[in-house]
Design brief:
The relative contact order is 0.15. The radius of gyration is 22 Å and the shape is globular. Helices cover 70% and strands 2% of the residues. The chain is mainly alpha-helical and 432 residues long.
């Protein structure tokens, strides 16, 4: 659903007028997914250790974590909006004389109007795709910056309130019916966060880029409300014994993750409006391997917490530990294949995805490669951080998920390029 929504949003006039939003989307999605996964990890630990059984402690824990989530989300959304707008300004517009581009990080393939059947390669670095800008495309300025900032802050705050409350309820239900939330909440938090954040971004972008954009009114109101909300929840968090430590730590991995996600946003901004099906596939090739890797991170981290000496540098893994790691990673790898196959079958039969059948095996090969990258990064980063005294439950998931998102986007571009080069009928989107 997230992929299909992104595919449709790429044609919305509001987002084409303010195309910095396409750079913002991966940054916000990654940031929100990380915050919710960290929230679920903390509350799952509290549930499994019995802290949620006491009514007073449960109330303080829930309120403190939701308050800290609002503070973290608004602060990171502010940074994301500034980074997004800066990247949008740094990427220079190119002449609007060509259409139907195929772009990768170093080469832009296009056919000039006078030679529709001839393809040329032109080196391009850090540039917008050579295409006609949609009618009404706004020039980036103060009004556009306020709109991007208002969209980022409003969507992050609303998504945090809705999904944070929902995850608290899920964990309480799991505790009540004796299920381990560690096995349920990370993928649920990641996928629902993507869908909810993307929905809010699309709706708010449409709302805040109405004619009122010209008079600053709606974006300024959104920013003012976000500032009041931030101040209120900082006050609440500092008075809560469970939230106070969260305000003072854990910012570094979120900032690193957002920096990495800016690269993902650049890739999405270039390609989501170029190739049919790119939006629907980009969410899956990054999201599903990321969820598989997050489960692996959680399992390794649990094992390290249970046996603190296991991950220390200089202590080799036993044969039994190595066998367990191999079985776990192999199982997670093969679990993803039927899920992906079911997804592809559904979207193809439903008509949501229009790609030639010859493209499917190329995409699946890229997906398998990204799952392998995800599992390797999960294993390496968890032990690397643990060996340096950093809790992987807090520091690993943000960096891991952002790297997997970026590698997934790049592999998807490579898949389209290989398919097109081999003669597959990969369709271009019509640019309004």
């Amino acid at each position: 659903m997230t992929g299909e929504l992104l595919e449709h949003m790429s044609t919305w006039r509001a987002l084409q007028q303010l195309d910095e939003v396409f750079i913002l989307i991966p940054m916000l999605n990654n940031m929100k997914g990380n915050l919710e996964m960290n929230l679920s990890a903390r509350l799952s630990t509290a549930a499994n250790t019995g802290h949620l059984d006491d009514v007073r402690t449960r109330r303080l824990l829930m309120l403190g974590n939701v308050s800290a989530l609002q503070v973290q989300a608004l602060a990171m959304a502010f940074i994301a909006a500034i980074g997004t707008f800066t990247l949008g300004k740094l990427i220079p517009p190119l002449p609007a004389d060509y259409s139907s581009p195929i772009v990768n990080s170093t080469v832009l393939l296009f056919h000039p109007p006078q030679e529709p059947r001839t393809w040329h390669a032109i080196p391009v670095a850090w540039s917008r795709a050579i295409t006609k800008l949609p009618a009404g495309k706004t020039k980036s300025g103060l009004r556009e910056f306020l709109a991007v900032l208002g969209i980022a802050l409003s969507s992050a705050s609303l998504a945090s309130f809705i999904l944070g409350s929902f995850m608290c309820g899920v964990i309480l239900v799991c505790r009540r019916i004796h299920l381990d939330p560690d096995n349920i909440t990370p993928p649920l938090a990641s996928s629902l966060s993507d869908l909810l954040t993307l929905t809010l971004v699309g709706l708010l972008a449409t709302f805040l880029t109405l004619p009122s954009l010209e008079i600053f009114r709606l974006p300024l109101v959104a920013i003012l409300l976000a500032a009041i909300t931030f101040s209120l929840f900082v006050f609440i968090s500092l008075r809560n014994e469970f939230a106070r430590p969260l305000i003072k730590s854990g910012w570094t991995p979120l900032i690193w993750a957002m920096t990495i996600s800016s690269g993902t946003g650049l890739v999405l901004d270039k390609f989501v409006t170029r190739w049919e099906g790119f939006g629907a596939l980009s969410v899956v090739i990054g999201g599903l391997p990321g969820s598989i890797g997050s489960v692996f991170v959680s399992r390794i981290s649990t094992r390290l917490h249970a046996n603190p000496l296991a991950g220390q540098e200089g202590r080799p893994w036993t044969d039994n530990e190595k066998a367990n790691m191999w079985v776990t990673s192999s199982s997670l790898f093969f679990v993803g294949l039927p899920v992906l196959s079911s997804y592809l079958a559904f979207v193809l039969l439903a008509g949501w995805l229009k790609v030639p059948l010859s493209f499917v095996p190329i995409f699946m090969a890229g997906f398998c490669l990204n799952v392998t990258i995800s599992l390797y990064l999960a294993h390496f980063l968890t032990h690397f951080l643990w060996g340096r005294g950093l809790d992987p439950d807090i520091y690993c998931m943000p960096v891991h998920s952002s790297l997997v998102d970026l590698s997934g986007q790049c592999l998807l571009v490579l898949a389209y390029w290989i398919a097109s080069s081999s003669g597959a009928d990969v369709q271009y989107k019509a640019i309004p």
